[in-house]
Write a structure and sequence with these properties.
The complex is a heterodimer of chains A (306) and B (269). Chain A is 37% helix and 20% strand. With 306 residues, chain A is an alpha/beta fold. Chain A has one domain: Aldolase class I (TIM Barrel, Alpha-Beta Barrel). In chain A, strands 3-4-7-8-9-10-15-16 form an 8-stranded parallel β-barrel, surrounded by 8 helices. In chain A, strands 5-6-14-11 form a 4-stranded antiparallel sheet, with no helix packed on it. In chain A, strand 15, helix 9 and strand 16 form a beta-alpha-beta unit. Chain B has a 7-stranded antiparallel sheet. A 7-stranded mixed sheet of chain B has the order 11-10-9-8-12-13-16, with helices on both faces. A two-stranded antiparallel sheet of chain B has the order 14-15. In chain B, strand 3 and strand 4 form a beta hairpin. In chain B, helix 5 packs parallel to helix 6. Bound molecules: flavin-adenine dinucleotide, flavin mononucleotide (FMN) and FE2/S2 (inorganic) cluster.
């Protein structure tokens, strides 16, 4: 019964609830993703995967900040040719949509990786054009409207499954980036990736992250992400997945009210645990009942004043 | 997870003790890690070099100790550091061994002996019997013999070396068949190379004896976020590093067989 209240759809994907695992969190193996689905997630996004294997940066790759974490993992991933096996395995065990996050260093590379991921069974793709700490990919792609449009168009040409574009907050106007992505064919948008950040140890006078610069996630960025979603809802018709600092059902409801169709949860999986999705879903269900709504879809965007 | 635990604390190295030609013990001042329980680990930041997971070997009175084997860049750099130099710590992280009573057997291989020595010190007073099998390649690499003899009584410490330079000449797993057949132990604990752990797990399973082992996997975040350290559905950093027999049965297809490499690909252990 509560499942009916929460069930929703996003760019053609049927979700039993509007929560999903964010990319880069417990996202390497089928069993790890399954654990998150068991924890209540309505969908899962894999770690971002590229054309070739990457080792990522040396440790420290994460550092605690007030109300958040700064990370610079450096996109460690096995490369798509290895990862297709994990995708295929995941498809045989997961009871929820599998979204594969892809990145590349050119439009062609995004398209090649996307095509292989889709062929292996991905239900949808999320284009990481927003990682803030790896050169020549991620946000360096997302910040350039011409290249962004080319990436989205090439991927759309290469695959039949829905294509989600994950946006960076590290731009002057996220609505402009979103419009570019939508015009090029994006079926949905995820907002946001991490916010450029760093940490310095005062004792040793050294930056803590081996990569010096990283991205901030967790509760500290929730208000930033919320504003992005609110702006996007007014700028485009495309469904939006809210992401950034979401930890509780209240956070989730806030994002839905701002205009998100679904949310992704990352850092809270560590701050809490993989069952955080169940806790969120219980809270959202109770909220909908108390307020007399028949479906989670009814509250999308209602915070907007006309 | 409490964010205070995950906040990096810089602290001077208080003392360095040479345990063997390749292993040194570092004692640091840190209030939070001083509360660590046997089995827990900390993330040690070697400024400008790396940050690595290390099991707690001892903890009391605002102090925590770790025993480190020089195997690569980070650990070799640490071995060149002296008292007074600064490192960073976060933690303690992960779960701990359950503190059993009755007849207890511990099996340690290499630096895996360190967390078991910590556990042995905590359990010695209430255990009815505490036996320890400790092994190494050669005599000079045998760790904590004096400490173990002091905690367990000399007769109950069995030593093995692969080259026969001390104790029995065999693998650390060799004496276990006889031990387990002779005595009905209430709990077996193991820490060391994964093939050793997996062999002991099979033996204890045959005898139907409760078993706990501490595992190692590549760790980055240490807090259950990045997924680098998974075995089956478990995150070694958060759901482990200590796993019981029931959990180990669930991950048999990976135990002693495969792990994730730095790029997240499955590689042989
Ligand atoms: C929970 C846990 C507890 C540990 N406790 C101890 C201990 O008490 N004493 C001890 O000497 N060693 C311990 N280790 C192993 C120790 O972390 C590695 O030896 C160390 O990280 C090697 O770093 P390096 O740069 O010197 O070697 P490298 O040349 O970088 O690596 C050598 C090998 O060490 C392992 N390793 C490297 N980096 C990591 C990492 N970030 N996480 C896990 N493994 C890694 C890999 O298997 C690698 O092949 C523990 C590991 C884990 C996961
Ligand atoms: C350790 C870590 C690794 C991440 N890796 C990726 C990644 O590979 N691809 C990606 O698109 N986003 C990645 N992200 C960003 C998250 O998916 C998410 O957008 C961001 O953390 C904000 O959400 P949160 O506050 O719920 O964590 C990563 C975040 C963290 C903390
Ligand atoms: S080290 Fe990141 S999840 Fe365990």
């Amino acid at each position: 019964m509560s499942h009916n209240l929460l069930s929703t759809s996003l760019a053609g994907l049927k979700l039993r609830n509007p929560t999903a695992l964010a990319s880069g969190i417990m996202g390497y193996t089928a069993e790890s993703l399954q654990r998150v689905v068991d924890g209540g997630a309505g969908a899962v996004v894999t770690k971002s995967v590229g054309a070739a294997p990457r080792m990522g940066y040396a440790n420290p790759t994460i550092v605690q900040a007030n109300c958040g974490l700064v990370n610079a993992m450096g996109l460690p991933n096995p490369g798509i040719d290895e990862f297709v096996e994990e995708i295929a395995h995941a498809k045989t065990i997961l009871q929820a949509p599998l979204i594969v996050s892809v990145f590349g260093y050119s439009a062609e590379e995004y398209a090649v990786v996307a095509k292989k991921a889709a062929a292996a069974g991905a239900d949808a793709l999320e284009l990481n054009v927003s990682c803030p700490h790896v050169k020549q990919t991620g946000s360096e792609i997302g910040q350039n409207p011409r290249i962004l449009a080319e990436v989205v168009a090439k991927v759309k040409e290469a695959v039949q499954v829905p294509v989600i574009v994950k946006l960076s907050p590290n731009v002057t106007d996220i609505a402009e980036t979103a419009k570019t992505a939508v015009k090029a064919g994006a079926d949905a948008l995820t907002a946001i990736n991490t916010v450029k950040a760093m940490a310095i140890d005062v004792d040793t006078a050294l930056p803590v992250l081996s990569n010096t610069r990283g991205g901030l996630s967790g509760p500290a960025i929730k208000p930033i992400a919320l504003r992005c979603v609110y702006d996007l809802y007014e700028a485009v018709e495309t469904p939006i997945i809210g992401c950034g600092g979401i930890t509780t059902w209240q956070d989730t409801v806030e994002f839905l009210l701002a205009g998100a169709t679904a949310v992704q949860v990352g850092t809270a999986v560590a701050l809490e645990n993989p069952n955080v999705f169940h806790a969120i879903n219980r809270g959202v269900t109770a909220y909908l009942k108390k307020k007399g709504y028949g479906s989670v879809k009814e509250i999308i965007g209602i915070a907007h004043r006309t | 997870m409490h964010t205070a635990l995950n906040t990096i604390r810089t602290t001077p190295i208080l003392s360095v003790k040479t345990e063997s030609p390749t292993v040194k013990t570092y004692t640091l001042k840190d209030k939070l890690c001083a509360k660590a329980k046997p089995g827990q680990f900390l993330m040690l930041w070697i400024p400008g070099v790396d940050e690595i997971p290390l099991s707690v070997m001892d903890a009391e009175n605002d102090r925590v100790s770790v025993s480190v084997k020089a195997v690569g860049d980070a650990t070799r750099h640490l071995h060149s550091m002296k008292p007074g130099e600064t490192v960073g710590v976060r933690g303690p992280f992960g779960n701990c061994f359950t503190e059993a009573s009755g007849k207890i057997l511990m099996v340690g291989g290499g630096t895996g002996t360190a967390p078991l020595l910590f556990l042995a010190r905590r359990l010695a007073a209430k255990a009815q019997r505490l036996s320890f099998v400790v092994g190494a390649k050669t005599k000079t690499e045998l760790l904590f013999l004096n400490e173990l003899n002091a905690v367990c009584t000399e007769q109950s410490v069995i030593t093995t070396t692969e080259d026969g330079t001390y104790g029995l000449q065999c693998l650390v797993t060799e004496p276990l068949g006889k031990l387990l057949a002779e005595t009905r132990f209430d709990m077996v604990y193991a820490c060391g190379p994964e093939l050793m752990v997996s062999k002991i797990f099979n033996l204890t399973e045959q005898h139907g004896i409760p078993f706990e082992a501490s595992l190692e996997r590549l760790m980055r975040c240490g807090i259950g976020l990045c997924g680098s350290c998974v075995i089956g559905k478990y995150r070694v950093c958060r759901d482990g590093p200590v796993f019981n027999a029931a959990q180990l049965s669930e991950v048999k297809s990976e135990l002693g067989i495969s792990k994730l490499g730095f790029d997240g690909a499955r590689i042989p252990v």
